Amino acid sequence: MVQEVQRKEEEGAVEGREKWRQNISSLSVLTVAVLVGLPLWWKTTEVYRSPLPYSDIQNLAGQQAPPSLVYTISVLVLTEEETMAASFLSNLQTELANHTGGWVVFLQ
Length: 108
Hints:
The protein has helices at 2-44, 54-62, 82-100. With 108 residues, the chain is an all-alpha fold.
């Protein structure tokens, strides 16, 4: 009976030491993760901010606007009726003229 009590006490002491080791290990891993992982994450996810050439920007403000760019876009409308195609093209021309300030030229 005494041996059984001593054995249980020894098992409790071993379990206590194991629990203590588990806690220390967990704390060590957490410490390493915070001390290494957090700064690494912070540095790798920061946004690079390039310095702006303010003097060049000011020089551009005083210059004349660049010449316009011309794009040619072909539109093919397939409908069963010619009047539907004409109506669609008329609406398209009106909408583009409204949204571009009248800078659209249509060639038939």
